[in-house]
Amino acid sequence: MEPLFFKAALAAYFAATAGYLVSLVARRVVMAKLATWVLGLAVVLHTVHFLEMYTERGFNVAVNLFEAVSFFTWIVSGAYLAFQMRTKTRVLGAIVAPFAVLLMMLASMGIEGTLAIPDALQGRLVPIHVTLSLIGEGLFALASLAGIMYCIQDRQIRRRRMSGLARYLPSLGDLDNINHAGLLWGFPLLTLGLIVGSVWARTAWGGSQWVADPKTIWSFAVWCFYAFLLHQRLAIGWKGRKIAVLSIVALAVLISAFIGVNFLSSVHKFT
Amino acid sequence: MNVILVGMNHKTAPLEIRERLAFSCGDGLRPLEELLKNPAVREALYLSTCNRVEVLARAGDMEEAITRVKSFILRHGNLDAAELEKCLYVHCGSDAVRHLFRVASSLDSMVMGEPQILGQVKEAYRDCVEQKASGIILNKLLHHAFRTAKRVRTETAIAGNAVSVSYAAVEMAKKILGSLEGRTVLLVGAGEMSELAARHLLANGAGRIIVANRTYARAVQVAEEIHGIPVGFELLEEKLQEADIVISSTGAAGYILTPAMVQGALKRRKNRLLFIIDIAVPRDVDPEVGRIDNVYLFNIDDLQGVVDENVRNRLQEAEKAEGIIGEEVLKFSEWYNTLEVVPTIVSLREKAESILRAELERSGSWLRALGEEDRKNVEILATQIINKILHDPVTGLKEESQSNGAMPYVAAIRKLFRLESEEP
């Protein structure tokens, strides 16, 4: 299958990134507005791509790593746009869009790869497990991206540098809200995704060798890390910079769990 | 271009002269009526704000009109001629257009980029239209000025950031807290600048204001003025945990807010972001407070730094704006220049059409012999021939008009085509 819409979406993500960068360099809000619309277009094209896949071979979004990455990108971008509608944080797009392009390029390396689904992944719960986990992780990633921006903005304000970049960054309050919402929504979804995954693993393999799988362990680490973050936020009342810094560390764990570990894992290995 | 602009602004005239003029031309009088009494002034616009008094006019005779407008201003300002000459500026032609565009775009304002001036120009134009003092030239010119101002506003950041300390405080608050909707402001001590900042914050959505003062009576007094809640100093620590923005301006010699106090309040408020503005000299807030996570402390110099940065930025943007204005002045001149050839073009077309109609009538007898369809075709053919023949001279005239060299051609065409009866 020629993934036409996938390529179109990649192009649109790329155009949005360029738009955001130009708007930062040339200091034109109009460009950022335009870039946001282009990003919206990218998500729409990407959605069409998924619909096409769905009609072709049923609901199974992540038969290989590359499609998982692509789906993940879609979640992050979509969630960002949803936030954008509520808060005026257009500049956050300048970090979400390049992130999306990187992931999409990674995804495009194998998007035409094998469609053979291993027998072990034919279970009915697998798509649910994959979808929930990916959405959860996508929201976590968005929370962390907001955290990165928070740290930049915090630094700019403390150094009294009000020109250039600082002028266009969203307010600390908004960034903190995005971080909060990302954690709050991401956590139950990932939790549910992991539960579904373990239930299914128990029925599929019966035994417990999957527990020792690196991916499982790393995912659990991600879950713990973000659970800790959420706990600090809600129960201890951490806000602002501390959470933002931790979010960045959490993102590193998330990415290594998401991509790196796949090459070590046996059960979760794609393709 | 027969457009003149005579006036004075904050740079050329001292306040007492401007106010005398603005006052005497105030509500009761109708300056436009008086201006238009003179035949040299064909259309006029009278703009009076606290920083400028200007008359824009389309003149019949330029020299005459300038003298008339000057004497009009002289009479109303009760000024002697020598004093007047020092204050007034006179712009003619495209310079007048440029000046108007600069005024409307707020490049000529005391605080560059302030938005009120455009509204004031619009107001002046409304008066002008109501009193039927505007004609084709001023209508076009003013609409062009509004369009230019809009372009400057959207394409440059000239009105982008705060250029006063109290407004810079609001801007920083937004930068840190995001929306100010429902936020609590705590005023510690009282002072003109802190009250002004508080008012700005209220206007931008802040929910409530708490006023703390060492003397409770003074707190009540200030709170009344800005619809705040007065509290005594003993409640300061408690109120610190409710506030999102603290503005401190007491006359105290030592620090009012210490790191321990702020840290304690922060813990109780679950680390919600806190923006502290210290505009007191000597300072009220221990600088160490600024090192605490989630607390952002700005003193008067910091805010002034923000303002200076913004002013520098506006000056940069002003250069861009001048470029835009240059383009727009050129566009207007082009339109204006074609005006002198337009009547000739119109009469040329009319003459051609009347010839066509007369000829069709004369040939009516044999045309009737043709079918409906053919008759139409003959008419179309004749019209097309006329249009083709006229096309080159008409575009030629328009082109020549841009280099101000059209008059000989206009004269030649009028003579050769015998268009002489109408006005030139």
What is this structure's SSE topology?
The complex is a heterodimer of chains A (271) and B (424).
Chain A: H1 4-26, H2 29-57, H3 65-86, H4 93-108, H5 125-158, H6 165-168, H7 172-205, H8 214-236, H9 241-258
Helix pairs in contact in A: 1-2, 1-4, 2-3, 3-4, 3-5, 5-7, 5-9, 7-8, 8-9
Chain B: E1 3-9, H1 15-24, H2 31-36, E2 41-49, E3 52-59, H3 62-77, H4 81-87, E4 89-92, H5 94-104, H6 116-130, H7 136-155, H8 165-177, E5 184-188, H9 192-203, E6 208-213, H10 216-225, E7 229-232, H11 236-240, E8 245-248, H12 259-268, E9 274-278, E10 295-299, H13 300-339, H14 342-362, H15 364-369, H16 372-402, H17 407-416
Parallel strand pairs in B: 5-6, 5-8, 6-7, 8-9, 9-10
Antiparallel strand pairs in B: 1-3, 1-4, 2-3
What do you see in this structure?
The complex is a heterodimer of chains A (271) and B (424). Chain A has nine helices and no strands. Chain A has 271 residues and is mainly alpha-helical. In chain A, 46% of the residues are buried. Mean pLDDT of chain A is 78; it is low at 112-116. Chain B has 424 residues and is an alpha/beta fold. Chain B has three domains: 3-155, Glutamyl-tRNA reductase, N-terminal domain (Beta Polymerase, domain 2, 2-Layer Sandwich); 165-303, Rossmann fold, CATH 3.40.50.720; 340-416, no CATH class. In chain B, strand 6 (208-213), helix 10 and strand 7 (229-232) form a beta-alpha-beta unit. In chain B, 38% of the residues are buried.
